[in-house]
Amino acid sequence: MATITAVIPVLDDAEHLLVCLRALAAQTRPADEIVVVDNGSADDSAAVARSFGARLLHEPRRGIAPANATGFDAASGDIIARLDADSIAAPDWLERIEAAFDADPGLAALTGSADFRDGSRFVNWIGREVYLRWYFWAMGGLLGHPPLFGSNLALRAELWRAVRHEVHRDDPRMHDDLDLSFQIAPGERVVRDDSLGMSVSSRPFSSARSFAVRSWRGVVTIAVNRGARRRHAASTRTRLLPIPRPRG
Question: Residues with Cβ < 8 Å from 238, sequence gap 6 or more?
Fold first, then answer.
């Protein structure tokens, strides 16, 4: 039977982390390991993690990308399940993840959507029906497979080991989930399953500035990865050019 590690990056979010860890403690299929990566919190986030018996790691480089990569590197499970400190997983979240990977040995990664909370009804609707719907549609068309959504995803540890040196873990401009999605090789099976119940905070849409920053990071992530693909393709074409033979 596969083992599951849940990874949660956190920065000054003790109150939300407490609720997140309570939801993980109530899972019908408990995590075999919970890794909380503290990204330099000045609040009680570390103490909250310890109180639930989570494995606490510290990542001094600020940003979700380095914190997430540190947690994935340290995970001991066969499957890595990823959520945010402000995520509240449905009670059967890990049970559904386990069942999906058990039923499909070729499944490389699994992702779900989310319901937004703690905003107005309109803001919560914008989050799910506009932002997430557009993200899955547009990025799915660009990638050729569903993009991973960082607040609700799972992947085989062997997939992470194959791409861990390809992700831009040191670039604070990156959307870590979209960046990871770009590194998944063509032919790998990625599935979106909206039955993976998850509730997330609507904080990203709390102001025009926070939404603009999130959108800008998405644009940068696409530009960096598509640029890298073009350079790789050009390099490959150069290597495949026939070597001219000397005349005479």
Answer: none
